[in-house]
Amino acid sequence: MKRVAFKMYLKPGFSEEYRKRHAEIWPELKALLSQNGVEDYSIFWDKETNVLFAVQKNHGEQSSQEIGTNPIVQRWWDFMADIMEVNDDNSPVSIELEELFHMD
């Protein structure tokens, strides 16, 4: 199992909408993530910078950010594009973070 961490960017003023959309995450997206080995997935928000910090455990080879060819993921990206900084394909601007320390 590997741990993956990355940051994304929330547009100002959309924290409650982001929280609402994730509270109602689509069952098919949740199932897809699980099928691809993504588990124990959390997203934290830095209120001062609007940076979203995500961390997840992966049993598979791909993180949630690497399954973007799937139509479910592409629909989710489109759904979230109005409240996040995104690339031309509506994927979230996402920067993988290097792990410097871990303690079990």
Would you mind describing this structure in some detail?
The chain has one domain: Alpha-Beta Plaits (2-Layer Sandwich). Helix content is 27%, strand content 27%. It contains 3 helices and 4 strands, in the order βααββαβ. Strand 2 and strand 3 form a beta hairpin. 14% of the residues are buried. The model has no long low-confidence stretch (mean pLDDT 94).
Outline the fold blueprint.
Blueprint: E1 2-9, H1 15-23, H2 27-35, E2 38-46, E3 51-58, H3 71-80, E4 95-97
Concise description?
By secondary structure, this protein is α+β, with helices and mostly antiparallel strands. It contains 3 helices and 4 strands.
Poorly predicted segments:
none
CATH topology: Alpha-Beta Plaits
Q: Tally of extended strands?
A: 4
N to C succession of SSEs: EHHEEHE
Proportion in β-strands: 25-35%
Outline, from the CA principal axes? globular
Just name the CATH architecture: 2-Layer Sandwich
Kindly provide the name of the CATH class: Alpha Beta
Major sheet: order of its strands? 2-3-1-4
Q: Structural class, from helix and strand content?
A: alpha+beta
Largest sheet: 4 strands, antiparallel
C-alpha Rg, in Å? 13 Å
